[in-house]
C-alpha cells in the first residue's frame, strides 16, 4: 500500500465501488489505512487523474480525499479539515463503513485544526468542532430518517456511532445540553440493545458522565458500571477513563474503592481521598484535594469530590457519637472535632447548620435542641449506612 | 446536482465584496473558510479589511441619525438641547445625543463606515452614559435612566460586533456594561414588570459577561479578578461558571476577590447557608448586588433545613439568633418565616417539618437585605474617593484615562 502508484490506487477504488465493497472502499478513504502515508498519492491537484479513472461524483470525492492526504503530509490540518468536509458531503459517504471512516477523520481533523489555530492565536475555541458537529448532525438525520430499507440494510445502524462522535464533540466544547435530543433518539429506538458492545460501552460512558453532571448519581452509577463491566479487559486505558468517573459516584454512594483497584488502574490520586473520607478526616481530605487539584479539575470531577465533604462530616460526627457513647450529644463536641480538623472560622451556628443538613439528607436520625445545645439522636441506628440513604 | 457541485467546490467562486468594493474569493462572515486557493500559479487573495469595517463617526451619534431623529421628533428627553424642549421641533444637543439601538433587518441598508463609531469613541460614549447619565442625581426616575442607558449601551455593543472589535477598549466597554447591569439588577429589583424586566437584564448581562470572559482568555487585564469574581457570584450554583473559575490560571485564581467568590460558591455547593451568609458580609457593594438575587433562595434553604432539624415538639429557636444568621432585621426575619409556614411566637421561632412550605405565601419583594447590601453602598463611596460620595462609586475607574474628547464639548456648546 505504501508504494502503489496513483493509478493503481484509483483502480482499487473503482473496483471497490463497482463490486459494492463498502468495507474496502471505507478503508481506502480512511486515514487509519497505510495508503495515506504513500507520497505518490499525496497530490495537491489530483482532479485530472481522478477524472480519468472514476465516474463523477466519485472522482471529486476521491480527489478531495487525496488533497487531504497532501494537506496532512504538510501538517496543515486546517486545510485537511476543509478537504474532509468536502468528502463527507458526498452521497457515497452514506454507505455505513465509509461514513464511519470519514466522519471519524472529520472529527479528528477538526480537533487538530483547532489546536493549530489556537497555537497561532487565531480562531475561537470550539468553532471548528461546532461546524464538524453540524455536518455530523446532517449525517445523523439521514440515518435516523431511513425508513425505506429493511432492518438489515437500514442506515439506522449508523446512528449510535454518529451519536458517540457527536458526544465527543459536545463534551469537548462543553455544550452538554445538546446531548439530550440524541439520548432521546436512542431511548426511543428499538435497536438500542442490538448495537455492537463497543458502541454501547462508549454510549453508556458518555451518558453516565452527563448524568453525573446533572447530579443524578444513581443513574450515573448504573451507566458507568455497565460501561466498566462490559469494557473489554484489553482496553486498559478506556477502563481507566471510565473508572475516573465511576469512582467519585460510588464514593458518594458510600462505596470506597480498594487499594488494589486503584493501583491496578494507576489512579493513586484517589487513594488519599478515599482514606480521608472513610476516616472522617477533613484535614486529610482538603490536603488530598489540593494536592491533585490539577488532575481533578482537568477531568471535571473536582466539584463532585468536594461533595464528599458531606460524607466526611458524617463519618467524623459518627466517630464523635461512638466516642461519647450517649444519644444526647453536646454541640460543643462537634465544634471541637471540626476545630481539630483545622476547619477555618467555624462557629456553633455553622455546626448546627452542618448537622441540620445531615439530618435533612437522612444521614443522621435525630433532632437538635437549641435550648439544651444538644444533638439528640435516635437510639436505634442513628447513622444509617450510606448505601441506604438516597 | 452536478452544476451545484461545480459552483460550490470550484476554487474560483467569487462575489462582490461590499466592504472593499471589489471582487473577493473569500467566504463572507465570521468563521467561514479563510480563503480558497486559486488554481496553481495565481496568488492567494488575502483581503484583510473586507470582514472588519472600520467606523469613522467621531461623535456619540452619527450626523445622519441625529438629523433624522431631530426631524422626526424622536429625540429622547435626555438628548434635547436645554431651552428647546417646548419648541415645536426640539433641537438635539450633539454633546448628549447618543446613537440608539436599531434592530438589524433584512433589506436594510448595508452598514456605512460613517455610521459606525470606532472603539475609542465607543469607550468615550460609555463613559458619558455611566458618569453623566446613570449616576446623575438629577435625572429621575431611574427606571427611565436605566431604559436610556440600557438601549444606548446595546447600540455600543452592536457597533463593536459589526466591527469585530477586540482589545482594551472593548474590554473596558464590557466591564462598565457588566457593572451597570449588575447594579441595575439590584436597584430595580422591586419595580413592576412593566417598568423593568429582570429577565431581559439577565440575558444581556450574561451575554456581555461571557463575551468579556472570552476576551480575558488572551492577554493581561487589570480588572480581570474583579469581573471574574462578579461573574462567579452572579452565577452562584452554576457548575459551568464554577468549573470555568477553577480552570483559571493559578495567579488569577489566588486573587482575594476570586477566592472569596469561590468560597461563597463552595458554601453553596455544600449546602451551608450559614457559612454562605457569613461570607457574604465580606463582599463589597457591587459583589453583593451580584449575589443578592440568590439570597432569598439561601434563606429559604436555611429555613427548610432547620424545619427538619429542629422539628421536635418542645423545640424553640430564638428569633434574634435566626435574624442574625439571616442578616435580616427581626421583623423581616419573622415575616420571611411566616411566608414559608414557619410559626413565629413572639421572640421564638417554632420549626416544624410539616408546616414548612416551599412556595412563599406572600410576595417577597419587600425583603431588604440591608446589612448585606444597602449598608455597603456608603462605605464603598467614601473609602475610595471622598468626592465620589455623590456618585455610586461602583464604576471605579471612570474616564480618568479616557477623557471625553474636547471635540464633543466644543460641538455641544457647553459643559454638561
From TrEMBL, chain A:
InterPro entries: Csn12-like (IPR045114), PCI_dom (IPR000717), WH-like_DNA-bd_sf (IPR036388). Pfam families: PCI. PROSITE patterns: PCI (PS50250). One of its GO terms (cellular component) is transcription export complex 2. Residues 201-382 form the PCI domain. GO terms for biological process: poly(A)+ mRNA export from nucleus; post-transcriptional tethering of RNA polymerase II gene DNA at nuclear periphery; transcription elongation by RNA polymerase II. GO terms for molecular function: double-stranded DNA binding; RNA binding. Belongs to the CSN12 family. This is PCI domain-containing protein 2.
UniProtKB/TrEMBL annotation, chain B:
GO terms for biological process: centrosome duplication; spindle assembly. InterPro entries: SAC3/GANP/THP3, SAC3/GANP/THP3_conserved. Residues 60-345 form the SAC3/GANP/THP3 conserved domain. Signal peptide: none annotated. It comes from the Eukaryota. GO terms for cellular component: centrosome; nucleus; spindle. Pfam families: SAC3_GANP. This is SAC3 domain containing 1. It comes from Scleropages formosus (Asian bonytongue). The lineage of its organism: Eukaryota, Metazoa, Chordata, Craniata, Vertebrata. The gene is sac3d1.
